[in-house]
Design brief:
TIM Barrel, binds magnesium ion, alpha/beta
Length: 377
């Protein structure tokens, strides 16, 4: 099996209503998907996180051509070759997102060739489904947030979710009010996490953590700058709420410092940004040395979501226990015009659980000509 062609597809979809988080506002959604076609006509798909036209240029003009003629199943050597060729220019960020997309596409092909769903190739036992948490409760809109979020909480519960994540970052006092409100809307049984997207200095993050500690917060995600792992440690040492982060980090080399410092309770590499599945496995193994639980960040299309699901299904619990805490994977519920529109069949999501696809590879089929309304260039 040899790679004949690599295509990079930058997608852009207009939102009906902008939404925002602590850093900026969205009015479009972007994703970059790669299609790797082999000489015998098989197709593997991958996805990159981040600005789509930028990662598309990296794949289209630089990294993609390097894969032509290579065996896509040789994921380790392909990854090392791509990383070695780009190391001098970017060890994380968009360069690693582009490598991630290519790596995921190679794994898709490798599992298709083996005739097995990817998670089984990655060493998982037969698994039916994994519990998801609802990612939503974003800012924006003219309506008071409490009113909109009350409706959103009702949707979340009606769809059977037992875990959710909300945004914070509007200032400590306002955040504390909103977290209490959402806790009230969801009830005490639902696992509720908060995500500041690195809006705070350590002192403010610690203050917010203290104010919401009594509300049973599952984790506090990205309380402070991802450029400063020591600041995470500072926050972590001052609160009983578990600390999460890592969606801005990439590769085992990047995560090693976080793990060595014991700066995180939950590490959240994004498979579409951290270096793909090949590197995600190494990050998770490294995390297991210091008792960090790795739970992937996921944002984007069904390709990225499926990659996260297959990867996570195959990660063993560490440390092991007779009564492990349920795995919990991210499920973005914000508006995305193309998320379902580009695929033939959405992944089965029922009662807040995602069901592993049982067809070979990633198990996500893209509709022919699906991209036409969304092509960004
Ligand atoms: Mg986040």
């Amino acid at each position: 099996m040899r790679v004949r062609k690599v295509d990079a597809c930058a997608l852009r979809g207009q939102l009906s209503q902008p939404f925002s988080f602590s850093q900026f506002s969205y009015d479009v959604r972007e994703a970059m998907l790669v299609r790797v076609t082999t000489e015998d006509g098989r197709v593997g798909w991958g996805e990159a996180y981040g600005p789509a036209v930028v990662t598309a240029a990296i794949v289209g003009d630089f990294l993609g051509p390097l894969l032509i003629g290579r065996d896509p199943r040789a994921v380790e050597s392909n990854w090392e070759m791509l990383y070695a060729r780009s190391l001098d220019y970017g060890q994380k960020g968009v360069m690693l997102a582009a490598i991630s997309a290519l790596d995921i596409a190679c794994w898709d092909l490798k599992a298709q060739d083996a005739g097995t769903p990817l998670y089984r190739l990655l060493g998982a036992p037969p698994v039916e489904s994994i519990q998801c948490y609802w990612t939503g409760f974003y800012f924006g809109g003219d309506e008071p947030l409490e009113r909109r979020w009350e409706r959103e909480a009702r949707d979340c519960l009606e769809q059977g979710f037992q875990a959710a994540k909300m945004k914070v970052g509007l200032g400590v006092a306002r955040d504390a009010e909103l977290v209490a409100a959402v806790r009230g809307f969801l009830g005490s049984e639902v696992k509720l996490s908060i995500d500041a997207n690195h809006a705070y200095m350590p002192t403010d993050a610690i203050e917010l953590a203290r104010r919401v500690e009594g509300l049973g917060i599952h984790w506090f995600e990205e309380p402070v700058s991802p450029l400063d792992p020591e600041a995470y440690l500072q926050v972590k040492s001052q609160t009983s709420i578990p600390i999460a982060g890592g969606e801005c980090e990439a590769t085992r080399f990047g995560f090693e410092r976080w793990f060595r410092l014991r700066a995180l309770d939950y590490a959240q590499p994004d498979l579409c940004a951290c270096g793909g599945i090949t590197e995600g496995i190494k990050i998770a193994t490294l995390g297991s040395l210091t008792g960090v639980h790795v739970t992937p960040h996921a944002w984007g299309t069904a390709i990225g979501q499926a990659a996260a699901l297959h990867f996570y299904a195959a990660r063993p619990r560490h440390p092991s226990t007779l009564v492990p805490e349920s795995k919990l994977i991210e499920c973005d519920r914000t508006e995305n015009p193309y998320r379902e529109d580009i695929i033939e069949q959405p992944m089965r999501l029922e009662n807040g659980r995602w069901y592993l696809p049982d067809s070979p590879g990633l198990g996500v089929r893209i509709r022919p000509k699906a991209f036409e309304p969304y092509l960004a260039d």
